[in-house]
Design brief:
By secondary structure, the chain is of the alpha+beta class. It has one domain: Alpha-Beta Plaits (2-Layer Sandwich). Helices cover 26% and strands 40% of the residues. The protein has two helices and five strands. It has a five-stranded mixed beta sheet with strand order 4-1-3-2-5, covered by helices on one side.
């Protein structure tokens, strides 16, 4: 059985108004990762990734690169020990 992992993170930079959330959602769906992504009022993007540990780690790296129109300056993540698992990936 694959090891499951939950990670919450925050992305800083030019990450709003550039299709960042849709980019993350498409990648998450392709990698079968569940969770959410949403814009925050302070200009950052928050995400929750849940799924196979390797897929989650790979998606974090994709998020660090971002889509072509975004400029990611920082990604901060934290492991979540006991998070309720989401049913799918959504934009909030």
């Amino acid at each position: 059985m694959a090891q499951m992992r939950s990670v919450r993170g925050f992305v800083s930079g030019r990450v709003q108004g550039v299709g960042f959330r849709y980019f993350v959602m498409r990648q998450a769906e392709a990698m079968q990762v569940r969770g959410y992504v949403r814009n925050l009022r302070d200009g950052r993007v928050e995400f929750l990734l849940q799924g196979d540990a390797n897929a989650v780690a790979g998606l974090v790296e994709i998020i660090r690169a971002g889509p072509s129109h975004a400029r990611v300056s920082d990604v901060v993540t934290e492991e979540l020990e006991s998070a309720a698992f989401e049913q799918k990936f959504v934009i909030r």
